[in-house]
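User: Predict the structure for this protein chain, please.
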Amino acid sequence: MATRSAVAPARARSPWRRLRPWLSTVVIVLVWYLCAVTGVLSPNTLPGPDRILLTAWREIADGTLGEALLVSLGRVASGAALGVTAGLVLGVLAGFSRVGEDVVDRPMQMVRTIPFTALVPLFILWFGLGQTPKVLLIAVASAVPMYLNTFAGVRDVDRKLVEVAQLYRLGRLRTARTVLLPGALPSVLTGLRFALGNSWIAVIIAETVNSDAGIGFLLVNAQQFIATDVVVLCIAVYALLGLVTDWLVRLLERSLLTWRNTFTGT
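Assistant: Here is the predicted structure, written as structure tokens:
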């Protein structure tokens, strides 16, 4: 057992283990490049990765991409902060209290089934064409998965731990903070990953409707002028941003969940 546990960290730190997750992506990009240079793919249909890199350099050099990126990041940060906080609070409330569940769960389940695109015209009618409807759309998109995973995590906490907290008369707020949230943390962090992923999906929808800035605005303009390279670049930027946020949450998981001794694959 000691030998096996000593070998596992070394294997995890090996260069092959670090590079292996990227191999499939590299193969896809190489196949894409070969199809582009051999003429299998028309540049008007799907430009090659070399042309996308040149387009990215051009958009960065004139400041267009950087400005759009800052706008989109600001919207996602604001909306996700609202949604994650609301989902976390509502999830703990519904998970800890039967009354809270009766009040909160049904409305959240109904919101869960509503497509983002259905909310866009309603938010525009309510809040106009500014930042508010875009931020609120992202907030709704991130609140739902955060709520569902927090609720499930709280309900998975060992009942005996809550009974001990009640025995020591910790009170509801302290019990939620010191018992329920730490116990539900793995599920909460999973919800955070889903919430941030949904935030990028929502910002795409928000920025392609009545927007004058952001990556989505670039995407709509490129579509109108049939600039396929810019369209693919915007899609690639969204994909990279989603990958980066997921990576940051994974780092947070490794930092906060060091106490877990769970199966991580063979």
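The chain has a mean pLDDT of 82.
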